[in-house]
Write the structure tokens for this entry.
Amino acid sequence: MPILIQAEVGKMSSVPFKSPIPIEALQSEDHLLEIRDRSAYTKILLRERKGEDLSGELGVKYGESKLRTDGTLVCGSRPGEWTLYNPSVEANSLLQTLETYGERVAITDLTHGRALMSVEGDLARSLLEKVCNIDFSDPMVPDGASFSASVGAVSCDLIRSDSDQVLVLLSCERSFGLYLFKVLADAGKEFGCVVPPELGLH
């Protein structure tokens, strides 16, 4: 059996998830930009133990990401570490798929400890470049890229995972989730995002 580390007090995987973000999504009037809360996704950290090398088995190296057929996005977030994201809110089902690695890995359920959101659409890169000192052009941040950066002064993990349009996921500590969403929403106003008053922007 893999080593399972409880990141939160108690059995949080059995507690219904409550997002720190009160708005599900914001969209520009021309539909070229959307900011969406995805915090309810299951988030699992997989860390290989000393002497192991799982990058070949996972098919994902540091700085890369890959979408599995079951909908799980596997991201090489650090050397020897991978973060797995799945739209399902049931963490146990994802944990069961990792049992084959046995004691070669340590697994941490981060679902309740991390916020997750996406910026997507033709204007996604333009918005992100307003709040992050990264060149988001295709040569610098291609589809599948996984990296860390400061976004609005918040330390984030970012993953580009396009479908039919540009989509960038941003993950941060839960306590910064609402603030980061507000930063993105405020920057999005320039691109026509309609921000409801209940979000509480100044």
Confidence is low (pLDDT under 50) at residues 6-10. The longest helix spans residues 177-188.
